[in-house]
Amino acid sequence: MTAPTLSRPRDPAFARPALVGLLAATAVLYLWGLGASDWANSYYSAAAQAGSQSWKAWFFAASDAGGSITVDKTPASVWVMGLSVRLFGLSSWSLLVPQALMGVATVGFTHASVRRWFGAAPALIAGTVVALTPVAVLMFRFNNPDALLVLTLAMAAWAITRAVESGRTGWVAAAFALVGVGFMAKMFQAFLVVPPLGFAYLLAGPPRLARRIGQLAVGAVALVVSSGWWIVVVELWPASSRPYVGGSQTNSVLDLLFGYNGFGRLTGNETGSVGGGAGGGGPSWGSTGLTRLFGTEMGAQASWLLPAALIVLVVGLAATARAARTDRTRAALMVWGGWLVVTGLTFSLGEGIIHEYYTVALAPAIGALVGIGVARWWPRRTELGARAVLSGTVAVTAWWSWVLLGRVPDWAPALRPAVLVGGLLIAGLLLVPPARSRVGRRAGGAIGAAALAAVLAGPTAYALSTAATPHTGSIVLAGPTTTGGMAGGPGGG
Questions:
Q1: CA dist 69 to 20, 46, 57, 58, 63, Å?
Q2: How far is CA 441 from each of CA 12, 272, 433, 448, 480, rounded to the nearest angstrom?
Q3: How far is CA 27 from CA 70, 102, 137, 319, in A?
Q4: What are the helix (H) ranges across 205-295?
Q5: Residue 441 to residue 415: CA distance in whole angstroms
Q6: Is 107 exposed, middle or buried (0-12, 13-18, 19+ CB in 10 A)?
Q7: Where would I find the H helices in 13-91?
Q8: CA angle 16, 21, 26 (to 5 degrees)
Q9: Fewer CB within 10 A of the end CB, N or C, for the chain?
Q10: Taking Cα atoms as reference points, which of 295, 293, 308 lies closest to residue 398?
Q11: CB-CB contact of 315 with 389 (8 Å)
């Protein structure tokens, strides 16, 4: 395989209008009827209101304007909402519109990352997959910190893409600084993407090895500074003149960081946890294991195209095993595939607090991998191997949609057999060698569009159902199984 060129794929005429259409449609999906969710998660809404009344409460993310206690997370998400409430007044819209716009931006950055190396059409598919992931619709219409976390991680993946492309230290530093901003939204969960981003640049970055190591050291400094400055300020601030650190046992943000919101999420030993966990007498956050993301608790949230993403990752890495060191396809697979695998395994095996909506963090990785798979194998349909990958991926995805839809058998019952039968028929057509004539090319385009419709029908239906349902409380679910949310402890803990 030849080394990648330095030029980007030239965008076709439809690229910009299609992108504008995608972002506009995403905005409508995420903004329509947003006020029906009222205060959404009132725990964070109260902190945003407090921050709009007191700058000190805003800085510490206190739950009340008097500054008696903070929320149990780092404050970046509350900062955004607090500023919005201060500017526009307290309302459902001032709390939730920033989250929706973060969702639109996440779709945009995922699209931008895929487009740089793989072209406009795969990028549009990647962005569409992200936008229609049911749990993404849920969390970008809600006011938990996950919206800001996912946006910053998508931006970090885009920045490391630019770094691998250019070899510039600034892009490496920007990528890890953005991860640090994600830490300021939801602490250590943001760090799950650090190994994939760092390893991808270490292997595929253009400079010599010594320079790449030095650049990653700069990135590490950027990560520490961007994620740690607020921690240092809180620890050095006299405890008597600041709010108590919520979720901690010792009024220390370090206790919160390494305990309740840190290693306790993996081990289940969460002193101070409410509503379950080992600290409450034994694990009660669902069964753990490698199939957890596909199970009845989490499956319908984000796993619709997870089998497709895993197929793309495994087959793609095998196909690029002997490629040049700087091969961009392999680098992209390491970035997005590493994000998916590391985060997915953490969610699957963690014995502490794990809620279904955490899986929103997988949506950009799944979308990007699906887009990369289309870019890799659709142009090679004259090869039997490429046709087999495309056909098998569509068949498995259609079958998995059939399984997920079967978990709510009384909801949209006609959709389930249509997805399975249609998907299997299209999978069969994809095995037929494409004709080189104009009619054959048009037929191929029609088959491709039908394949997308088949694999996206299930998540689209769930996404629309999610957008049509108000969500309040702290523990919320996407799809028709939810009645809007359940009351729970602080921040969904």
A1: 43, 12, 9, 12, 6
A2: 17, 61, 11, 11, 39
A3: 32, 10, 10, 37
A4: 209-236, 253-255, 264-267
A5: 29
A6: buried
A7: 15-31, 42-53, 55-60, 76-88
A8: 130
A9: N
A10: 308
A11: yes
pLDDT, tens digit (0-9, with 9 covering 90-100), for 303-327: 999 999 999 999 999 999 999 999 9
pLDDT, residue 285, reads: 61
Calpha distance 468→89 (Å, rounded): 25
The residue ranking higher by pLDDT, 488 or 209, is 209
Please give the model's pTM, rounded to 2 decimal places.
Answer: 0.93
Which amino acid, residue 447? I
**CA geometry: angle at 321 spanning 346 and 200, to 5°?**
50
Tokens representing residue 331 in the block: 């680098």
Q: If DSSP states are collapsed to H, E and C, what string results for 273-305? A: CCCCCHHHCCCCCCCCCCCHHHCCCCHHHHCCC
Query: Which amino acid is present at 427?
Result: A
How far is the C-alpha of 363 from the C-alpha of 366, rounded, in Å? Answer: 5
The CA distance from 152 to 190, in Å, is 9
State the helix-helix crossing angle for 209-236 and 194-204, rounded to 10 degrees: 160
What is the spatial distance between Cα 432 and Cα 427, in angstroms, rounded to a whole number? 9
pLDDT of residue 281: 38
> Which letter, b or e, does each residue of 151-179 get, where b requires 16 or more Cβ atoms within 10 Å of its Cβ?
bbbbbbbbbbbbbbbebebebbbbbbbbb
Among 91, 33, 223, 185, residue whose Cα is nearest residue 491: 185
- Which residue's entry shows tokens 């500074």? 225
* Alpha-carbon dihedral sign for residues 301, 305, 311, 316: negative
Q: Which residues contact 480 (CB under 8 A, 6 or more apart)?
A: 408, 411, 412, 462, 465, 469
The structure tokens listed for 359 are 């899986």
Contact 412, 405 (CB under 8 A): yes
- Here the tokens at position 82 are 């607090």
Distance CA 78, CA 69 (A): 14
What one-letter code names the amino acid at 346? Answer: T
Look up tokens 């966990």; give the residue. 277
CA distance linking residue 11 with residue 13, whole number of Å: 7
Nearest Cα neighbor of 145 from 80, 97, 92 is: 80
Segment 440-459 shows an average pLDDT of: 91
CA angle, 348 then 351 then 352, to 5°: 115
